[in-house]
Amino acid sequence: MTEPATEFPPPKILTLSPAHKPILITQGAEGRLYKTPSPFQPDQFCALKYRPPKPYRHPILDARLTKARISSEAKVLDRCYREGVPVPAVLAKDAAAGWMMIEWIEGEPVRVGINKWLGERPEDDAVVDHSQEDETPLTDLMKRIGVAVGALHRTGVVHGDLTTSNMMLRPWADDRLPNGHGDKAEKAKAVAGDVVVIDFGLAMQSQSDEDRAVDLYVLERAFASTHPRAERLFHHILDSYREAFKKAPGVLHKLEDVRMRGRKRSMLG
Ligand SMILES: Nc1ncnc2c1ncn2[C@@H]1O[C@H](COP(=O)(O)OP(=O)(O)OP(=O)(O)O)[C@@H](O)[C@H]1O
């Protein structure tokens, strides 16, 4: 079998220091993500997002598209970072060469944290008795997600692909972590941490309620299919979004229409 990493060579920037071997983290249809020591602080890591040339595309068109996509993603990230939205900082970029270097976010995707919390529960949430369960750590995480999305929309950015895989849980320092041992404490630790939004490959600048509502709808649908056993808690995300973002009422009103259209579409097949 061909080793995927050798199909396309890594970008030149990653070959300059032979002592630092980049680690290929993911390889998607469009790009690859490497973890590599930061050239600015060698005791820290950074993430290098690379869009290799596509041999099936016309080279001039391909170069233009790659440059535009990297530039646009870096621009949106920069804007969010400057305005205090929790996203990775952009450290360097060479859009023409198809890469940007961003801050490495420690921790796991929110998807993994929520699934650890949910553990081995039956898929049919209705059969579970939640009355005896303290769900505060999980609902607190949902509220942090709503605050992060509210902050994003406040800066005039819509993400385009909000899912719990495109959010990381950056670990808290020990003194902020839930105390104790045993299953309950372990579950609480799984959903602890700051929410950092990643993957702005489909993001755009927009102030429209409709675009923001679609962003929330995408998250709602992704959440329901990734975490069906926590679907009844999704409203906590919307509640905290409403508190975090002044223009939320208009967006949430639009969300009703977007849902309606979604239902009609799925009825028509
Ligand atoms: N800054 C980061 N720090 C740590 N891990 C990251 C970071 N950015 C991305 N990752 C990890 O790499 C994975 C892929 O990253 P990302 O979603 O940005 O790339 P992609 O899906 O290939 O992008 P695109 O959808 O734009 O083609 C993420 O799911 C996450 O696990």
From TrEMBL:
Keywords: ATP-binding, Kinase, Nucleotide-binding, Transferase, tRNA processing
Entry keyword tRNA processing: yes
Reactions it catalyzes: L-seryl-[protein] + ATP = O-phospho-L-seryl-[protein] + ADP + H(+); L-threonyl-[protein] + ATP = O-phospho-L-threonyl-[protein] + ADP + H(+)
Principal EC category: transferase
Classification via Gene3D superfamilies: Phosphorylase Kinase, domain 1, Transferase(Phosphotransferase) domain 1
EC number: 2.7.11.1
Function: Component of the EKC/KEOPS complex that is required for the formation of a threonylcarbamoyl group on adenosine at position 37 (t(6)A37) in tRNAs that read codons beginning with adenine. The complex is probably involved in the transfer of the threonylcarbamoyl moiety of threonylcarbamoyl-AMP (TC-AMP) to the N6 group of A37. BUD32 has ATPase activity in the context of the EKC/KEOPS complex and likely plays a supporting role to the catalytic subunit KAE1. The EKC/KEOPS complex also promotes both telomere uncapping and telomere elongation.
Family: Belongs to the protein kinase superfamily. BUD32 family.
Name listed for the protein in its UniProt record: EKC/KEOPS complex subunit BUD32
Taxonomic lineage: Eukaryota, Fungi, Dikarya, Ascomycota, Pezizomycotina
Gene expressing this chain: BUD32
